[in-house]
Write a structure and sequence with these properties.
Strand content: 15-25%
Distance between the termini: 32 Å
Shape: globular
Structural class: alpha+beta
Number of strands: 9
Radius of gyration: 21 Å
Length: 392
Amino acid sequence: MDARFTAEQDEIRRTLRELLHKRCGPEELRAAVDTPAGHDPALWTALAEQLGLPGLALPEGYGGVGCSVTELALACEETGRALAPSPLLATAVLTAPLVLTLGTDAQRAELLPRIASGGLTTALTVPGPALATALGLTGRDPRGEWAGGGRAGGVQARQADGGWRLYGQVDQVLDGHSARLLVVAAHTGGFARSRVELFLVRGDADGLTRVRQTALDATRPQARIQLRHAPAELLGHGGDDVPAALARLGDTAAACLAAEAVGAAGRVLERTVEYAGQREQFGRPIGSFQAVKHRLADAYVQVQAARSAAYYAAWATARGERVGGLALAQALQALRGAAAEGIQSHGGIGFTWEHHAHLYFKRAAGDELLFGPVHRLRAHAADLAHVFEEAG
């Protein structure tokens, strides 16, 4: 493994950081999350047109840039630094790879160029609070029981009038209120022979109701999706092993999420160190006190270790090694620790709504609710590695 970044990778990071510094400061961030979309459409357009971010990891034949997961993870690190609310995670990380791997030739030709251009935003719609399980991050479920089905609820699919109709409800869908296309996991085949398939539902489909929910992390907007016999199109030809495809996607998603969390952790720690050099107590900066130095040094070591793990996961995932979940656990722990130190070091202002420190802490807590928690991510990684199994 060559740990050095290429000139192209350095350029992606530099250009994206400069753009976000200009377009996504604290005031712009707060204004964006208060909009109906939960993000700034103009910023998303700039990310797409100037940097090609939505199509960064898509093939050039579909209008993408043709980069790997590593470049996408580096981009996520920069958006994490700024806590930039955007459809990048929902569109480029969670759904575009599914269309690329499972879609028909016609579906790929129609959808992927629009995704790469930024004109089509998408959202993965998984029934129940089971996104981490569906992505294979916190447990194994080869039969897709996370999707409900039969008497267990979830989303049901049936054939009618020469097409498909979906019925059900999903409560936690990232960017589901604003996405122009939903990729919905639904059960079909009846109760006895139920199987999970993925379906495409247009954002303006009849029978589709979408309501934005109040989320702990406002920079990760979520929606409740209700489907009442909504028309849908089967993704692919049918018969694909959808749970296995989602589990493969999970490792890529975890690597990107780990890089994103590391970016946020590094930024909040930078701000904390800067403030510790300015805030004075007893006539001297608090950063000069040994206890404060030790706490910030510990946080720095944790962030750097998590950064190394995230970079390795991004590199290894493209080569089939499943280490994304473990890297994500380390990154989320580093982010929570760095954000907590930031709040503590800022004193009375650190926990106020007007200050930025609480946004980083909420990102850590919100991501654990969606993709963790940390102890389950680590336990599942240990299971995959057979750490606690006795030698035969």
